[in-house]
Design goal:
single chain, about 210 residues, alpha+beta, Alpha-Beta Plaits, four-stranded antiparallel β-sheet, two-stranded antiparallel ribbon, about 60% helix
């Protein structure tokens, strides 16, 4: 009884610690979700051990945890146009389940060290990404302009004059206006310069990203 209480407590602490980081950054799977996943994975693993002791297959239930958690993680992945969000959250859910299973098998040190490493990585990765974005980052510019191909060419030329390579460009026509989606790599300064020049064009009605 004492051992199962330790496992429950540790699963809540480790899952909760990783969940707090997600909650703090306003992600879909937060504190409560990660706690439940971690404790649930731990309990299923303990049940697998009991099943093995009773003569059953000890890996049968535990193996299904990996598949089941995959469905939960997939539900947090969203696509909005050219952008996909939720991949880190889905990977986090998968890892939290793995930590819960590790606790269930009694590998407390391994589970704790792994959770701490993930937490440090998550916090450090954000700072690293922000530092990289100061130099260059992928971004999408969406414009609404006159339905004129010369206007499209003029917009592309303004971007390319800043030594920016356009990676992808899509043009659609709605309500007698062109809607342009343009993907390129910018630094923060380049992005501000380009958007300012584009908004000064009388043919451009709106610009957003």
């Amino acid at each position: 009884m004492e051992e199962i209480l330790i496992k429950i407590f540790l699963a809540i602490v480790l899952g909760g610690a990783l969940g707090m980081e997600r909650q703090y950054h306003d992600k879909p799977a937060g504190y409560a979700t990660n706690c439940l996943i971690c404790v649930g994975a731990m309990l299923f693993t303990v049940l697998s051990e009991y099943m093995g002791a009773a003569g059953g297959d000890p890996g049968r239930i535990a193996a299904q945890v990996v598949t089941g958690v995959g469905f939960i993680g997939a539900g947090s992945i969203l696509r909005d146009g050219n952008k996909i969000s939720g991949l880190t959250t889905a990977a986090g859910v998968w890892l939290v389940a793995a930590i819960g299973m590790t606790v269930g098998y009694g590998q407390y040190i391994l589970a704790t060290v792994t959770a701490c490493a993930i937490l440090i990585f998550q916090l450090g990765a954000r700072k690293t990404i922000k530092l990289v974005e100061l130099f260059r980052r992928y971004d999408t510019i969406n414009l609404v302009c006159d339905p004129n191909w010369k206007t499209v060419e003029k917009i592309a030329k303004i971007v390319q004059d800043q030594k920016i390579t356009i990676l992808k460009q899509e043009v659609t026509k709605q309500d007698n206006r062109f809607h342009i989606s343009m993907v390129a790599t910018f630094s923060g300064h380049e992005f501000q310069t380009i958007t300012k020049k584009l908004l000064e064009m009388p043919e451009v009605y709106s610009l957003y990203k």
